[in-house]
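Example record

The entry below shows one chain as it appears in the dataset: sequence first, then structure tokens.
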Amino acid sequence: MTDEFDLVVRGGDVIDGTGRPRFAADVGIKEGRVAALTVPGAITGTETLDARGFVVAPGFVDIHSHADWLLPLADHGDILAPMLRQGVTSLVVGNCGHSLAPVTEDSTRLADASSEILRDRAFPYAWRSTAEMLDAIEARGVAFNVAFLAGHGTIRQSVMGNAPRAPKADELDALRRATRDSLREGAFGLSAGLAYKPGVFAQSDELASLCSVVAEEGAIFTVHGRAYVWISPFYKPMLLGAPHNVRSVDELVTAAKRGGARLQLSHQIFIGRRTWRTYPTVLRRIEEAVASGVDVAFDAFPYTVGNTTINAILPAWVLDHFEERIRDPKVLARLRREFAMFRLALGLDWSDITVTWGGGKPSLEPLEGLDIAAIARRLGISPFDAYVHVSRESSGSARVLIGTYSGDDTHEEPLRAVLSHRLCAFETDAILTRRGRFHNPASFGTFPRVLGRYSRDLGLFSLEEAVRRMTSFPAERIGLPGIGRLAPGYAADLVLFDPRVVGEGGPNAPPVGIDKVVLGGHVVVDRGVTRLDRPRGRVLRRR
């Protein structure tokens, strides 16, 4: 048989993404698709990759990323190269309520403010609708397969700005209409960020109404919950009843049930040492929701730190008219008291919050890489005043890494319980730009760390199960067509890795054990070196 395939990946152990045991096979690729899985040595191709000693798996799907504001840039492949090098071939973007579209002439300013920590640099919005945005991104070309979610916050800004109230009847109609339009134009679902402005102002009735639109269109609702801590400013009474992170899950499950929507709980984490003990209750609540008929799952990253904006832990009453209130002595006096109470109640120290980017303010650049306690010592002020200083000077745009996410360096029980759960897809939740000198380790090592530390070394789950939950499972949750499995007809997106050594490579360093990454039948990473001669990805659209 002579060269019937463009590329043959020969001699590897195939883990096909379904969870079934690995098997020896050669993979035949033609015109960017998997065309054959055969016994070793039965097929030939114009090119051949020697996969002996390697596992051959589908390209990894990052179900929760924040690459949106990079994709319109011609050099986005260079900026996002660490994601390719760890085996990611498909990105789901538009998470936490923020997306590139739909926008209006007036709302682009608000969208820019909301996305400040996600952007590498400014660019003009050459679109208004989701369809126009997808066309524009597709015309430029993408270095990954990309699936877009429509952001509830972005839609809300296009209809009612950052108004801190429930929508009026005509506004709710407009929100529903814009959501439906985005889903019909190719978005795979609606995302919400209920700890960020303006999503923080949305109440259950609004969410349930939009969930009904999502359900009618057969899409998915993904959501950054209101609380990932056991006590927060968001629920009353504050000290009675269930922990607030449990209430948050209950609120979201109820909204999804009322609207009939499929639900994806974003980055299931437990922040603060005194929140860790709530993990069995939260996981049990999710399991009970599934048992009651709600289609719900969640995702998580394999680190005890996570990136966010410095304002993410501010209560809604401060975020409303933030620029004025962060300078008001009476507001700061109240906030100081609340912070003192919450930090003690949560078991969160000032040293657990590290500034990775100062919002582009020259005065804050020397503070990048320092935690709030260290910044306070350097400036000769209290840690609370140091936190307010960074928030105020950066206009709330500073990027931080917060520790105690489901554990710390000495205690990982909550994290391991989450990662081990059959309903958990793996994700990066990474913000990766050229801004700042320090980055989330998830940008570089998420998937290799799962394969190495948590599967091989700790044995929390089999390698086959690890691959399933980073390929076919997230692809099926979002509804990505032809993605996530090694099977005839599926996209020829592959990762070749050495199961004996695969793992993260250290801070801001490439992973180890990832030999090659193939996207659309083309090698885009070869032993850590990216080949970005042209964009090889595709803009995916919901059918």
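Notes for this example: The longest strand covers residues 5-14. The CA atoms of residues 485 and 511 lie 23 Å apart.
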